[in-house]
């Protein structure tokens, strides 16, 4: 069975677009928290401008993901846009957590931790579909290690659940009690893994090109260049 990677048009731009969407969700959730806690005067001046820039940035990277750009140029553009996204993240954190400042420092800390956990699984979901078959990253179980089809479908399911549930959790983490948010986070991760395992076994059973046969046989190897 061929182990050559399927061509993907500028996956770096696609990931940046999803990462920017995670940041955008974080910003919107923070606005809702500020308004609920401090009224319409809660959001700092200029914050909505930052939110607008993030939305435009996400849309621009999405378009670039399928644009006819050479690999060399795409690499430099991806690096420069990653730096822009890092600046947006830093500015957003500085503005948001300054705007969220209240006498209850513990509540701010737990809310921030909850939001970061949701953001982490959303970013993991955005990248899951790009994990190399047989590589160290990803769901390494018997079915995924003996069938490329099972690997790809399992990580597609895992990525979609983590990404979209992560965005929803990130948006609500600013308004839900931290304990409730953390319980939902753990349940989301467990559900995503269970669904991916179910899909990997189902795909493995239906894959005529699966490797190894019985346990102990050959397994997939990471794609090398």
What does this structure look like?
This protein is mainly α and 225 residues long. It has two domains: 93 residues, no CATH class; 114 residues, no CATH class. The protein has seven helices and no strands. The two termini are 17 Å apart. The N terminus is likely disordered.
Present the secondary structure layout.
Blueprint: H1 11-38, H2 47-64, H3 71-99, H4 105-128, H5 142-145, H6 148-172, H7 178-205
Helix pairs in contact: 1-2, 1-3, 1-4, 1-6, 2-3, 4-6, 4-7, 6-7
Keywords for this entry:
225 residues; mainly alpha; 2 domains; 69% helix; disordered N terminus
Short description:
The protein is 69% helix and 0% strand. The chain contains seven helices and no strands. Helix 4 packs antiparallel against helix 6 and helix 6 packs antiparallel against helix 7.
Count helical runs.
Answer: 7
Mean pLDDT: 76
Q: Give the helix/strand class.
A: mainly alpha
Query: Could you say how many structural domains there are in total?
Result: 2
């Amino acid at each position: 069975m061929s182990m050559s990677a399927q061509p993907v048009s500028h996956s770096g731009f696609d990931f940046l677009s999803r990462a920017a969407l995670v940041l955008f969700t974080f910003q919107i959730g923070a606005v809702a928290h500020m308004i609920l806690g401090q009224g319409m005067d809660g959001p700092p001046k200029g914050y909505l401008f930052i939110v607008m820039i993030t939305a435009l940035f996400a849309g621009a990277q999405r378009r670039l993901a399928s644009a006819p750009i050479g690999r060399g140029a795409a690499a430099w553009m991806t690096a420069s846009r990653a730096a822009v996204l890092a600046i947006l993240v830093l500015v957003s954190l500085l503005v948001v957590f300054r705007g969220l400042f209240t006498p209850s420092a513990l509540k701010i800390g737990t809310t921030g931790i909850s939001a970061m956990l949701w953001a982490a699984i959303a970013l993991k979901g955005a990248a899951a579909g790009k994990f190399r078959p047989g590589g160290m990253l990803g769901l390494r179980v018997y079915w995924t290690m003996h069938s490329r089809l099972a690997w790809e479908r399992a990580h597609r399911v895992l990525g979609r659940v983590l990404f979209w549930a992560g965005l929803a959790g990130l948006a609500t983490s600013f308004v839900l009690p931290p304990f409730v948010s953390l319980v939902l986070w753990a349940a989301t991760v467990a559900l995503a893994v269970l669904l991916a395992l179910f899909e990997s076994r189902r795909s493995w059973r239906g894959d005529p090109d699966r490797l190894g046969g019985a346990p102990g046989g050959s397994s997939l190897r990471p794609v090398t260049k």
